[in-house]
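pipeline stage [seq->struct] | target=Transport permease protein | organism=Frankia nepalensis | residues=259
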Amino acid sequence: MTTLRAGWIITLRGLSHWARQPAVPIFGLLFSVMLLLVFGLLLGGAMEVPGDGDYLDYLLPGMLTLAMMFGVEATATAMTNDVKRGVTDRFRSMPISAAAVSLGRAGADMVNAVSELGTLVVVGLLIGWRIDASVGSAVLAVALLLALRFAMIWIGIFLGIAFRGGGTTSAVQVLVWPIGFLSAAVVPVETMPDWLGAISAWNPVSATATAVRELLGNPSGLSGGLLDDHAVLLAIGWPAVITAVFLPLSARAYRRLRH
């Protein structure tokens, strides 16, 4: 059996689990929608964007980006559960490539990411968000969001194996939440103290969120600097670097699994 075919079969396995137990993906969607409504409607009235941009238009690309990043928790948890339940052992005993297992996990998670993006876009449009961009720019924005999610998948696989003994969710939340909010996702970096804004500007989440705002015609909250001038390039480069680092690390961790 080829690696791609085996990976596709494992992808279908993941999707069938969600179909039989839809609570996990549904709660994930509801959590993202809740965050959007809290920041957009509850707190949004007190938020200001430099340049007098509309905060809701500023917020939506950031929330789309955060949703892609927070997906690392679902990946890590699913991978840990497979290891603890012996599913990974069964895969390792089969005549399939080790890469097929990770590709299958990635395929299922990417399908989930697309559904989450679609849901947030619809909710955003319903509450007043507007897109001022060509179809080509919108497609590129979605591609950058999915590129970030793809990179997060490999971090999730690595962490899921590394923390397979327990505490995966807590460990991932401790890592992901500060990184997610220490960014330009929900507030402009220019409203932060200089030293904090400099750190935030180099955050991969800031790069993707700013690039998506630029491509969708939404306010960036920036008036210059590296992030403002090269957001799209950074949004391409960061996922590429993350994938290049964590894909081989996750593959090595998978090969070294022992029970």
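stage status: PASS
auto-comment: Residues 3-255 form one domain. The two ends are 26 Å apart (CA to CA).
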